[in-house]
Amino acid sequence: DRKFGLKVQKAEATDIILSLARRNLGHHLQLTHCLWVLRVCASNVTTGTTLGINGAMELIFKVITPYSKRHVRTVRAAIEALAALLKSKSNSRRAVNRGYLGGLLRLYQDWHHNDVSNNYIYIRRGLLLCLKHITNIQLGRETFLGSRGMEILFTSIQNCLSCKNLDPIITTVTQILRKCHPKEPLPVATVRSSYSFPLPGNAKAQPPCDGSEGKWLKGDYESDEEEEAEKDLDNEDVESNEEDYDLETDVNKLRSRPVLDRPEEELGQYEAMCPELSHNFQELESESEEEKSLEDRTESLPSTSSHLIPSATSVKHPNYKQRSQSVTETGPDPGEKDFEVPLQSWIKKEKCRWDPTDEKRDIAEAAQGADSCEVEDPARSHVLALRPLPKDTAWYKKMFHPEYEASINPNPGGKLESSDVVTNLLEKHQGDIPFHSPCFYIARAKCIKSIPDYKDLAFPDFWGHQPPPYSKPMLERKYGVQRDKILGDVRRLVQPDDVIGRTVFDLDEPSHSSPGAPGCLTFFSKFESGNLRKAIQVREFEYDLIMNADVNSNQHHQWFYFEVCDMKLAVPYRFNIINCEKFNSQFNYGMQLVMYSVKEALQGRPHWLRAGYDICYYKNHYRCSAAAGAGVRGKCYYTLTFSIKFPHKDDVCYLAYHYPYTYSTMMSHLDILEQNRNPKKVYWRQQTLCQTLGGNLCPLLTITAMPESKKRDDLEQFC
Question: Which residue windows does the record flag with biased composition (Polar residues) (predicted)?
Answer without folding.
Answer: 300-329
